[in-house]
Amino acid sequence: MATVLRKPRFAFLVAGQTISQFGDKLHHMALIALVGAAAATNTGGLELAKLSVVFTAPVILFGPLAGAMVDRVNKRATMIVCDALRALLVATIPWLFVTTGHLWAVYIVAFFVFLLGVFFNAAKMALIPELVPRDELLPANAALTFIGRFATVGGIVGGGVIIGMAMWGRVGWSDYAAGFYLDAASYLISVITLLAITVSHREQGHAAVVAPSLAPLPLKRSTRGLVRDVVRTLGVVRRDRTMRFVFGSLIALSLFASTVYVAMTYSVQTVLGRGTRGVGYLGGILGAGMIVGSLLVGTIGGRWDKRRTILVGNSIIGFLMMVGGAFFSFGIFAPVAFIGGLLLAPVMVSQDTMLHEGAPPESRALIFSTKDLILGGVFMLSALTVGGTIYLLGRLGVDEPYRLVLAVVGLVILVTGVAGQLTLIAERRRVPTR
After folding, report:
1. From residue 214, how far is each of 211, 217, 244, 366 by CA, in Å?
2. Is residue 389 part of a domain?
3. Has residue 85 got a pLDDT over 90?
4. C-alpha Rg value of the chain to the nearest Å
5. CA nearest neighbour of 296 among 119, 146, 98, 90
6. Staple 378 to which of 43, 254, 405, 418, CB 3.0 to 4.6 Å?
7. Could you tell me if residue 218 is inside a domain?
8. Burial status of residue 212 (CB atoms within 10 A of its CB: 0-12, 13-18, 19 or more)
9. Residues 317, 343: contact at Cβ < 8 Å?
10. In this model, does residue 209 exceed pLDDT 50?
11. For residue 92, is pLDDT > 60?
């Protein structure tokens, strides 16, 4: 990790994405605070489910096409433009809500903010192999996750604390307005940092080795060409065993994220009486666990089997969700969040590294935007399902529906993770030894 961070261009990329990620998390905390202030008590969980649609719909509707477009343009310039536009949009949200008095207007602007994030993330992930050699991809991904988690902690914990400060009322700002304005400032700082990166369109002499089944796709400029590239790349994903495994494992990751977002966020905010600040503390604990997990995988993770790392991590995360559902309290959520983050970081780093190693250089952004499509699609569907289920169970008189849903989804993730491990063991036993 220290080696890759000493590379100036990669270091600037890390700095830019870290600041931008801080803005992303601060933006989320401001949206949560706004929903908490505007929604009725019995509809808060449902409003959070609606919010999940807002930030997942862009990648579902435009993800692969956005990736195909990013593969054809300057990736650094794409990131700069995206963050500049995001700064402008988020700064208008407080005024928009005060003017209209409705959340739907905020959701419309937030949709475009997250759409720009689709382009930004695809460009960032496609740029990494142009900055580091193939044999340093895992520590590079670990370094991005490791340092990025500090931004997560700062954006969530700091965001929760900042939004909850009483000083904003004295300057005429509401708590959520302060969050959006600081978010806009973070995006502008990210733009300045990214301007320091100078990268050519070429692979700088260390392009990844492309497997025969993953031949580079021809470049096309027309919309028809973009669609054709998307179809061909999805076909590559379907035929390649490693790609299928990674994309399949993303389902468990999305189930975890959506259930925690809907079931735990609102319950911590209201049922457990911790407010937005409590949500921030819990997210910060999760981020701290990811910092430790990123450090571990970045230093000794090169010796780990990536598929086993993903399966074991998912299994234990599912078990931790069951523990959280059984012992539904903030005191239990805190250690569960830390251990969950400790396991989540190696899972995510392993997934990204496997995709970097297998993706064609001309289609990296498309591959990673397809990854975001799967994450976003499953997240949105499961968030709506979880939010609707909690709402219906509450109307039917079921006590503590949040903890029930948390435990059930955890059981599903645990069972699928264990089944995957058993399948992996069976496959290795069938491989003939010499």
Report:
1. 5, 8, 13, 13
2. yes
3. yes
4. 21
5. 146
6. 254
7. no
8. exposed
9. yes
10. no
11. yes
Burial class (CB in 10 A: 0-12, 13-18, 19+), 105: middle
CB-based contact 311:305 (threshold 8 Å): no
| Nearest Cα residue to 382 out of 216, 215, 262, 268 | 262
Instruction: Return the amino acid letter for 117.
Output: G
Dihedral class, residue 87 (left if φ above 0, else alpha if ψ from -120 to 50, else beta): alpha
Whether the CB-CB separation of 390 and 401 falls below 8 Å is answered with yes
Contact of 193 with 16, CB cutoff 8 Å? yes
pLDDT tier at 224 (50, 70, 90 boundaries)?
low
String of DSSP letters for 185-231: HHHHHHHHHHTT----SS-TT-PPPPPGGGPPPPP--SHHHHHHHHH
Q: Which residues contact 254 (CB under 8 A, 6 or more apart)?
A: 374, 375, 376, 377, 378, 379, 382
- Chain position carrying tokens 């179809």: 231
Say which residue the tokens 């959070």 belong to: 48
* Helix (H), strand (E) at residue 375: helix 364-395
Q: What total number of domains does the chain contain?
A: 1
Residue ranges in 39-174 assigned as alpha helix (H): 44-70, 75-100, 103-127, 137-153, 159-163, 167-170
Which residue, 185, 232, 263, is CA-closest to 366? 232
Do residues 368 and 126 lie in contact, with contact meaning Cβ atoms separated by under 8 Å? Answer: yes
Q: For tokens 């008095």, what's the residue?
A: 101
Report yes or no on 76 lying in a domain.
yes
Task: With residue 422 as reference, give the H or E element that holds it.
Answer: helix 401-430
Structural domain range at position 107: 2-197+232-428
Q: What is the average pLDDT value for the chain, to the nearest integer?
A: 75
pLDDT tens digit sequence for 144-202: 877 777 776 666 666 656 665 556 555 556 666 777 887 888 888 888 878 877 543 34
CATH number, residue 345 = 1.20.1250.20
Residue 207 in domain: no
Q: Residue 261: CB partners within 8 Å, gap ≥ 6?
A: 48, 52, 379, 383
Contact 274, 49 (CB under 8 A): no
- The three state secondary structure string of 298-313 is HHHHHHCCHHHHHHHH
CA angle 351, 356, 358 (to 5 degrees): 95
Give which of 346, 280, 291, 279 is closest to 316, Cα–Cα. Answer: 346
> At CA 341, angle to CA 260 and CA 138, rounded to 5?
125
Does residue 394 carry a pLDDT above 90?
Answer: no
Q: Tell me the C-alpha distance between 150 and 82, whole Å.
A: 22
| Exposed/middle/buried for residue 167 (C-beta within 10 Å: 0-12, 13-18, 19+) | exposed
